[in-house]
Amino acid sequence: MKCNICEQRCEIHFRGTGRCGMYTADEDGIRERFPDRYLAAVDTAVEAMPMVHYHPRGTFLQVCTVGCNFICPGCVSEVLTDHIGAVRGQFQEMTPDQVLDRAEETGCIGVMFCFNEPTVSFFTFRRLATMARKRGLLAGCATNGYLTEWALSELIPCLDFVNVGIKGTAPSVCRACGIQDAAPIFRNIKTVFQNGIHLEISAVFRKGQEKQVEETAGFVSSLSPDIPFQVMRFLPFGKTDANDEPTVKEAEALCTRLGRHLHHVFLFNTPGTDWLNSVCPDCGAAIMERGFFGPMCSNLYQYRPEGQCRCGYRLPLKGKIHEETLPRTSGYFGGYRTVNAMSMIRSILGVLGVRDKGAVDAVIAEAIRTDLIKDLYQRLNGITAYFNTVDAFASLTDTQDRAALFREYVGSRVTAIREGAAGTEGPRVYYSLGHPLIAMFPEKMESRLAKEAGGLLTNQWLPREGRPGIMISKENFLAMAPEIIVVSDGIAWPGEDFAAFCRQRDLDVPAVRNGKIFHLAPFRGATNPDWVLGLMALANRFHPDRFCFNLEKEAERFYATFYGQPFNHGQLLRFPWEDR
Ligand code: SF4
After folding, report:
1. Is residue 412 in a domain?
2. E strand map for 250-294
3. Could you tell me the pLDDT band of residue 79, with boundaries at 50, 70 and 90?
4. CA 302, 291, 432 angle in degrees (round to 5)?
5. CB 308 within 8 A of CB 293
6. Are 439 and 399 members of one domain?
7. Which of 73, 312, 498, 543 has the most CB atoms around it within 10 Å of its CB?
8. Domain finish residue from 307, 330, 362
């Protein structure tokens, strides 16, 4: 039987499944395998979708299921899609009325289906959106736009807002995502626009793929230059090449070019950029100011009343600006924290030698069942806690010998560094979360490792507000007077770009003057199990008179011991063994 929901048009055999794994065929035709079952249904600001010019700060009930009809490399939801078996136990069955009751109880003005692809839960979403319309609530979704004309026509009467995400237009990019070409997506964008549905576009920007984003922007501007256009600076999640990530400078230059044809261009996944603001196309003043709030999310913190510029220009907003404060996207199952936590579990299981998908699924399911997943992030933000967490996973998988090996191997290097750095006066070290004026929180693993390596962490002196990093003023930056700056995101902010930014803004500190700005790549110093390589790299930098770890050899040894493969400079993969 042919599935007519998306342009994959899968042939589904009796009781089989199609490409997305979410539909099956039986005597009654094509049907959903998990109807009315949601992975999450929580109240969240619309900026989490992301939307920028639709009911800004409005609270919507965000719903999601699992699965996708694409297989894009680097998808942030890949880990959820890959482990449907593990997360199934988290499904909550709710009728449309129950979902909408929850929306009303939590003060939401509507529902939005995002985080995974609504196409794979088409009938569930259609029922929900139809009922929302009947109850006077708004309904929208974020989609890859690969629906058939029939499926889209079924949704249009009940849709209020849509964000269509474009992965790319080149045949190679389409093939990598598992589709033939992007033509149906552009067809659907036009249909959505012509039907008066509020439309925003997000386009992934990978290094060197400016032309594809420009082509997409050209098409969008031919519909209307007022359609908000969100450039998603590619972040290398999952099994992707870290070198595909463009620098911030490249991404901002692209936005400048796009801004010649479109009135409202935004840059996401880029802490500290001014390109998240809504700017007046007439006089250039910022009308709405936003900050980075995690991958594909922003936080509107300041705005002109009713989105009107001093010069009189009014932003083409749909809906009013709401009083709500921050998007509440973290801390529930199904958000980015969950995705990150699942990635961390996979990486820990990797060093324990547990790579069979069924075994990994079983551990993830157990971590979900026992709520271990909820505080995993905190549990991995310290060396002792890290060892204990590895032990906990080892006892779940009967791999205590591997955990002991990890503890012994990593512990011996930690001890050597602690002893070597003891009694020394370390250099003043500022750990930046990419952008020069965004500081890493001092309790993060990265910051702790900088201290372990004998640095005097200046981040601890900073006043703090917001998340995920601390926005700092020029005065605070100068007061820290760091002798060394460690940049956590060296790909987004290469040393020379970072230094150039500091010089332009008179951020004159010893580290900038003396060229002591560096990042850890190809080593890492966060919550992945190979953080010990980053720790050794930091120790070499902070105390060259005391440490001279042969990092190349250490990396080769670590990878051979725990991943059973050579260390690979070019590809900083989250799960190295999966690339074999
Ligand atoms: S919705 Fe799923 S089963 Fe249907 S055509 Fe698309 S990928 Fe295939």
Report:
1. yes
2. 265-268, 278-279, 286-292
3. low
4. 135
5. no
6. no
7. 498
8. 307
Whole-angstrom distance, CA of residue 486 vs CA of residue 498 = 11
Q: Give residues (CB < 6 A) around ligand 1.
A: 3, 5-6, 8-10, 18-20, 22-23, 69, 119-120
35 and 143 together in one domain: yes
Interval between CA 5 and ligand 1 midpoint (Å)? 6
Given the structure tokens 């109807």, which residue do they identify? 35
* Residue having the nearest C-alpha atom to atom 3 of ligand 1: 18
User: Please, which pLDDT band fits residue 207 given cuts at 50, 70 and 90?
Assistant: very high
Q: Name the DSSP letter for residue 308.
A: B
Strand partners, 203: 166, 231
Task: Say if residue 134 is in the same domain as residue 203.
Answer: yes
**CATH code for the domain in which residue 97 is found:** 3.20.20.70
Asked whether residue 334 is assigned to any structural domain, the reply reads no
Residue 16 lies in a domain: no
Compute, in degrees rounded to 10, the torsion defined by CA atoms 419, 425, 431, 436: -160
Other CB atoms within 10 A of residue 9 CB: 12
Do 265 and 369 have their domain in common? no
**Helix (H) or strand (E) segment spanning residue 138:** strand 138-143
In this structure, the answer to whether residues 241 and 267 fall within a common structural domain is yes
Confidence category of residue 573, pLDDT binned at 50, 70, 90: very low
Regarding whether 387 and 501 lie in a shared domain, the answer is no
**What are the residues facing 268 on neighbouring strands?**
232
The pair of structure tokens assigned to 6 is 């998306």
Q: Is the pLDDT of residue 326 over 80?
A: no
Would you say residue 112 lies in a domain?
A: yes
Contact status, residue 39 vs residue 113, Cβ threshold 8 Å: no
Place of tokens 């500091």: 502
pLDDT of residue 332: 47
Q: C-alpha distances in angstroms, 332 versus 30, 62, 328, 549? A: 32, 11, 9, 41
Number of folded domains in the chain? Answer: 3
**SS3 of residue 293 by DSSP:** coil
Check whether residue 67 and residue 158 sit in a common domain: yes
Contacts of 504 (CB under 8 A, 6+ apart): none
Residues 269 and 138 in one domain: yes
Q: Name the residue among 123, 163, 159 with its Cα closest to residue 143.
A: 163
Entry pTM? 0.87
Domain end (from 307, 328, 359): 307
CATH of the domain at 572: 3.40.50.1980
**Distance from residue 406's CA to the centre of ligand 1 (Å):** 43
CB 348 within 8 A of CB 575: no
Six token digits for residue 532: 């010990």
Measured distance CA(168)–CA(232) in Å, rounded:
11
* Residue length of the chain: 580
User: Alpha-carbon distance 480 to 512, whole Å?
Assistant: 12
Best residue among 5, 119, 124 to mutate for probing ligand 1's pocket (most ligand atoms within 8 Å of CB) is 5
Domain that holds residue 378: 351-421
CA dihedral sign, ordered 250, 256, 261, 263 = positive
